[in-house]
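Hey team,

Filing this mostly as a record. A colleague (T.K.) asked me to run one chain through the structure pipeline before their review meeting, and I want the input and output archived in the tracker in case anyone asks later how it was produced. No errors, nothing strange. Just documentation.

Input sequence:
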Amino acid sequence: MDEIDRAILRELQADGRIAYADLGPKVGLSASAARQRLQRLLDAKAVQVVGVTDPMAMGGQAMALLGIGVDGDPRAVADELAGRTEVIYSVLTSGGFDLFVEVVAPGPRDLLDFVNDVVRAVEGVREVRSFPYFGIHTHRFLWDVG
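Output structure:
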C-alpha cells in the first residue's frame, strides 16, 4: 500500500459514496485510475467499503463499552452475547479484560438492566466494568491510514 492508496482510503473515510470523478483529482489521479486503484485494494481484500449505522441516530440513547472478565473460554461468552441486538461488536483481548463488548440501549435504565440481567447472567462471566456514554454522537470510525 503506497501513499496514493492511503489517500484514497482517507477520502473514502470522509465520504464513502464519493464519485470516482471527484475522488481521482483529490488523490492526484484520473477517475479511471482511482477506480482501478480502489478495485485492486478491494480484490486484495485490503479494504471493504461498507455502510456503518449510527446507533444513536437509530434510537439508542445510552451506549457503553463493557470490559468483561471471564472464568473459562471467553469465546463462549462472546458467542452468547453476539446474538443480542444490544451488542454492536465484541473483541477478544489479552489484556486486563478477556473481552470488550460495546452495547447500545434505548436509555440508561435499559443499559443497566442489560448489564445486570443479561451480561452478568451469562455462564462464565466473573466481572463486568461498564464505561458508559449517553445521548451524544460518539462514533467516528476512522482508522489511521497514514
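Quick notes for T.K.: The chain is about 35% helix and 20% strand. The longest strand covers residues 125-134.
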